[in-house]
Amino acid sequence: MSKSEQKGNKYQLKIKDQNMYPLLQMGDIATFKKTSFTLVKPNDLVLITRKNSPIVRRIILKNDEYCITKIDGGKMSDNTVITAHSIIYAISSVKRRSVTIDLYEGYAVQSSVYWHQILVLMDSFKKNHIDFVFLKGLPLHLYYEKNYPKHMYTDCDILVNPFSKNKLEGAFHEMGYVKENDSSPSFQRFAQHEEIELDFTRKVSGIIVRFDVHYSVSMSTVHFNGLRKKLGSLSKEMLMTKKYVSIDSKRFPLLKEDLLILYLLLHQVNHSWKDLKGAVFINTIVNSIAKKRKGHIDWKVILDTAKKYSILNFIIPGLYLQKIYFTLCEPLIVCQKVYRDNYLYTMKVFNTMYEDIYPNNLSVTKIKTPLLSNKFTIRFSLYDATFMTKCKELFNIKFFVYLFLRAFKKSELI
User: Fold this and answer.
1) What value does the mean pLDDT take over residues 84-103?
2) Range of the domain at 178
């Protein structure tokens, strides 16, 4: 990975990959100082040894026995565990082209740039009468955590009313943003019934600012017509019930709290429940909301809404992770009482497809078999509808062409 040099309690590495980009860039000289397990905390950058080679990782979760880490350049935890007995080096400085970089200043600069661009976006959307709500991103951190993220991030997600489509691209063009091309395979784009997500980017003061625009909350590779329509209805409810909160004397549209928790749990499906950083953020949001409500969150309301839109089975694994990692047991207890059949079925599917999770065997969630690792198989199993309904919704020419072209594409790679 990197050229390394150890001097006493310090370790120097010349970065030669993009695993921790954009914070650590190729050619940077990173200096680490030996520390102890008790002193490191979530979001710290640490150096550890794996297979006799030094690697740099970010801590995303820590308890009394171990830490779980990830690379900045990926959504998933990378199966790297730091136990309480590990030798750990924490980052102390970074030198880039003879200039020493303050990491926390880098976090603050990125958030400052995003903050300004978000204010510009809100002014533009107000002028163009574009109805929207923030799904994820800096406003949520500032409102619920009362601080900017102590890590680098890649985008800000917003949900926009589809009736604003004809004004959206013009608004972003006026702000100096460029629409990114869809990088998904052409056969996958063909299978989509309509465009439901757009990415707009702009480089500001050397920092890439990206807005992910959604016309509907979605799960990747969803081919069920009925589920797609229900997700569209859920999106309408999110827009209609959004709440405005004050951040630095500015009013920001955020999701109603129950729908925010539901959305974040649903979003984990896109990462096959392996985005542990997302699970940590969900727990942070839940704790913040519980504090505002003096400890009470009506999980039955959240579960009822999920059932209404046929996505209950998709959020149960996320609730299970909250129990495993954070001992948040109440939502699963409520689910077992109110929707016992859904709970038993989902856990059976989940346990069939995935290996045990922490803390039993200290290995990050893994798919068990290649057959069941297919995202479509998982979604087909968990979609809360009868087998005949699922099959009926799939019987359309676009889906069959999609399967044929996908199989053809795979055969080219063999």
Assistant:
1) 82
2) 103-255
Q: Is 367 exposed, middle or buried (0-12, 13-18, 19+ CB in 10 A)?
A: middle
Q: Do 138 and 182 reside in the same domain of the chain?
A: yes
Longest dimension (CA), the chain: 67
> Is there a single domain that holds both residue 275 and residue 317?
yes
Residue of 127 and 400 predicted with greater confidence? 127
Residue 220 domain flag: yes
Find the radius of gyration of the CA atoms of the chain.
Answer: 22
> Based on the structure, what is the number of domains in the chain?
3
pTM across the whole model:
0.86
Q: Which of 27, 25, 32, 24 is nearest to 3 (CA)?
A: 27
From CA 120, how far away is CA 361, in angstroms rounded?
48
**Residue closest to 186 by CA, chosen among 398, 348, 4, 379:** 398
CA dist., res. 277 & res. 212, Å (int): 19
Under 8 Å between Cβ of 247 and 213: no
Dihedral angle of Cα 215, 218, 222, 223, to the nearest 10 degrees: -30
Which of 311, 303, 302, 21 has its CA nearest to residue 151? 21
Q: 69, 60 in Cβ contact below 8 A?
A: yes
**In-domain check, residue 354:** yes
C-alpha pair distances (Å), 368 with each of 30, 214, 263, 319: 37, 32, 27, 20
DSSP string, 301-332: HHHHHHHHTT-HHHHHHHHHHHHHHH---HHH
45 and 127 assigned to the same domain: no
Contacts of 360 (CB under 8 A, 6+ apart): none
Whether 286 and 231 map to the same domain: the answer is no
| Type and span of the H or E element at 52 | none
pLDDT for 414 beyond 60: no
pLDDT of residue 260: 97
Contact 4, 17 (CB under 8 A): no
Residues 44 and 95 in one domain: yes
Residue 253 is predicted with a pLDDT of 98
Q: From CA 91, how far away is CA 105, in angstroms rounded?
A: 14
Tell whether 190 and 328 lie within a shared domain: no
367 and 234, same structural domain? Answer: no
Question: Residue 221, SS3?
Answer: coil
> Which residue's entry shows tokens 């976090």?
107
- Among 46, 80, 41, 91, CA closest to 62: 41
Peptide bond into 185 cis (omega under 30): no
